[in-house]
Amino acid sequence: MKLVLLFGPQAVGKMTVGQELEKITQLKLFHNHMTIDLLEPFFGFTPEMWRLTTHFREEIFKSFSQSDQFGMIFTFVWAFDLIEDWDFIEKICDIFSSNGAEIYYVELEANVEERLKRNVSPNRLEHKPTKRNITQSEAHLLSSIEQYRLNSNEGEIKQENYLKINNSNLAPDKVAQMIKKRFEL
Q1: Please, are residues 10 and 185 in contact by the beta-carbon 8 Å criterion?
Q2: Could you tell me which residues come within 8 angstroms of residue 11 by beta carbon, excluding any fewer than 6 positions away?
Q3: What DSSP element (H or E) covers 136?
Q4: Residue 102 forms beta bridges with which residues?
Q5: Most buried residue, 32, 130, 147, 169, by CB count within 10 Å?
Q6: Domains of the chain, with CATH numbers?
Q7: What are the tens digits of pLDDT across the range 24-68?
């Protein structure tokens, strides 16, 4: 079992890179909006929606980590200045590692101009219904830059299986190939 944690700020290309990585490995993609977009129509962006999102994800992780699948790619936005995000990552990793999984950390970063372009890409809008309100999505992307630190500092992630890629000028399939090669997936 393998778990690829694919993280970075909004519209950096996590889902798209995950889709490409899924094509060239036996890993299954679980992008963060699969639960968000399921629950948002019922609860809006409320504390209850986030509670259920976390609960659903944890239950999926528990079941999947005990399966005979090759592994999972999970995408998410990690706010490095929020202890609850660190706790969530630790919990995910504990779920998988307690079942013998190897864990790989892949961080994407891109300049804000590129992220604003990607925020309106057809692939993103097709797979993430809550991002279709472009004005709201762009405002959230820009305000999060002021509110949170969404990329790690040098040396902050100490795990051996860690890769940070600036994909501002890299195609998603190229990034997926880099990940596959580095971790022999």
Answers
A1: no
A2: 115, 116, 118, 119, 124, 141
A3: helix 134-147
A4: 2
A5: 32
A6: 2-183 (3.40.50.300)
A7: 999 999 999 999 999 999 999 999 999 999 999 999 999 999 999
